[in-house]
Amino acid sequence: MKDYKKFLVWQKAHQLTLEIYRVTKNFPKSEQFNLISQINRASLSIPTNIAEGCGRESQKELIRFLYISSGSAHEMEYFLLVSKDLGFIEKDLYNKLNSEVNEIKKMLASLIRKIAETVNR
Asked: What CA–CA distances, in Å, run from 88 to 37, 54, 77?
């Protein structure tokens, strides 16, 4: 088992989740059970799957959960785009959040590669 809080990617994903929850408070109430719910769950899924993977017994299981986390990050990227295109977030905020998501995606890919190298030895 690993301490997920020590992973920089988890720390960044956690901060992104907090930011997304603050941002979606300003979305139209009509989106409460649609986009707000989806984007909040996707953002929450990124650090949650990192944490869950760290609690597993093997590196292979950790990698599997990191892939799930990465999938949620890709999903998050689209939710941000549609939020911008619907006018729920301004372009500057979109650019900032999208940049954060892309950094997390790269960090996850790097971490997956690093762990996979140790598994395949």
From this structure: 14, 35, 15
CATH number, domain with residue 67: 1.20.1440.60
119 pLDDT higher than 90:
no
29 contact partners, CB below 8 Å, separation of at least 6: none
The domain in which residue 12 lies consists of 4-119
Q: What is the pLDDT of residues 2-52, one digit of tens each?
A: 899 999 999 999 999 999 999 999 999 999 999 999 999 999 999 999 999
Structure tokens at 88: 């729920």
What is the rounded distance in angstroms from the CA atom of residue 45 to the CA atom of residue 47?
6
If one counts the domains in the chain, the total is 1
Q: At what angle do helices 35-54 and 59-85 cross, to 10 degrees?
A: 160
Residue entry with tokens 């959040």? 97
| Beta carbons of 66 and 50 less than 8 angstroms apart | yes
**97: closest CA among 7, 15, 38?**
15
Residue in 26, 6, 5, 9 with CA at minimum distance from that of residue 100: 9
